[in-house]
Amino acid sequence: MPKWCMCLSEIVLSSRHREIVLLTLLMVAFTTAICAQSFTPNFKPQMSISPRAGTISVDGRLDESAWSGAAQVTNFCERQPGDKTQPPVETKALVTYDNNQLYVAFICHDDPSTIRASMTQRDQFGGNDAVVVFLDTYGEAAWAYELFVNAYGVQKDALWTGVGAGAHQQEDTGFDLIWESAAAVTDSGYQVEMAIPFSSLRFPEKAVQQWRVDFWRIHPREAYRQYSWAAYDRNEQCWVCQWGSLDGISNVSPGRGLALMPSVVTHQTGELSEFRNPNSGFDNRKIDGEFSVGAKYSISSSVVAEGSYNPDFSQIESDVAQIDVNSTISLFYPERRPFFQEGSDIFRTLFNSFYTRMINDPQFAAKLTARSGKLTLGALSARDENSPYMIPLEEASVLLNTGKSVANVV
């Protein structure tokens, strides 16, 4: 064959290859467009749940028959960084309840070798594979519970309130509920089980509950991805208003009655009989101690009275260290003392009007919180034994102990 004929055949062949490649690309683009059009996110979805049929053990395995009849939450969409797009992994949640608890389970499909999780203390994990349950039990978009569980079953919870700036306003990360969780990594991803006692929640006393809820999955990989059951409009400032609705919970009651928490703290000191002689013996002084008691009475699901005498906060976890060098403002720490957590959203305002940590060492304290429709009421009174007072100066601040004081907040 002449040389010019060979070149011509190569040119024709190359042209055919280009046509095949172009046709393949068009088919892929067409298929992708069809798939994208077939995915429809859930805008303000609704679900109805029924009581469980059988027992549930919170162990992360989901092998109980009670889960087979639970309501299913599917069709999650990506909210970050994608905007209402289809996630690359599948997620499903199951929801049921009994007279005492709300049960939620997550089935998160993924390559188990890529799962990121940390075995940490409560509230301390970050950047983990995790699931989230959001509960607005009054359905008023004023405040809500946030319950996180990572792939190892570690809990993190917070109380959200609509007071503040930004899409998520403010979250009280020091808020802690009593609830159960467990997780298990499987061959196809990981699973999570949660049991949330109704006695830990506040909700209206009605025959049938109607709550705002949402279910999230956090999926950190090349980007920090978030998937949600409810789709969100980024131009809408009220993110809670876009949650789904849950009904079907009937004949359940929130926490009621009287709770008492007494405690006694004792201590004893001593010293060497002769300071310079280590063999002189040790003289112990008399044993001293203090009694304290806390009480909480739920008058109704919406009205709670609480009192405390000489409260003992020695078991509260230590504050995370903060750097105060070259800072022009005082450091602020989350409130973890149980007495100040009940109704903390009521005492939060658009500006820092009341910092509960300034009540330093209360001898006694009393508080009343109430909710009725969109009206909330909070009243607090405390007698402080040692009241700190800070005087800001040009080069440094002076911290004084002004002795006893009384704080009243309404």
SSE order and pairing:
Elements (H helix, E strand, L loop, with lengths): L2 H36 L7 E3 L22 E3 L3 E4 L10 E7 L3 E9 L20 E7 L6 E8 L4 E7 L8 E3 L7 E7 L2 E9 L10 E13 L3 E5 L15 E7 L6 E11 L2 E3 L9 E3 L3 E11 L4 E7 L28 H4 L20 E11 L2 E10 L3 E5 L4 E5 L3 E5 L1
Parallel strand pairs: 1-14
Antiparallel strand pairs: 2-4, 3-13, 4-5, 5-11, 6-7, 6-12, 7-8, 8-9, 10-11, 12-13, 12-14, 15-18, 16-17, 18-19, 19-20, 20-21, 21-24, 22-23
Mind explaining what this structure looks like?
Strands 1, 3, 6, 7, 8, 9, 12, 13 and 14 form a nine-stranded mixed sheet that branches. A six-stranded antiparallel sheet has the order 15-18-19-20-21-24, with no helix packed on it. A five-stranded antiparallel sheet has the order 2-4-5-11-10, with no helix packed on it. By secondary structure, it is mainly beta. The protein has helices at 3-38, 338-341; strands at residues 46-48, 71-73, 77-80, 91-97, 101-109, 130-136, 143-150, 155-161, 170-172, 180-186, 189-197, 208-220, 224-228, 244-250, 257-267, 270-272, 282-284, 288-298, 303-309, 362-372, 375-384, 388-392, 397-401, 405-409. The chain starts with a helix and ends with a strand. Mean pLDDT is 86; it is low at 1-13 and 31-36. The protein contains two helices and 24 strands. Strand 18 (288-298) and strand 19 (303-309) form a beta hairpin.
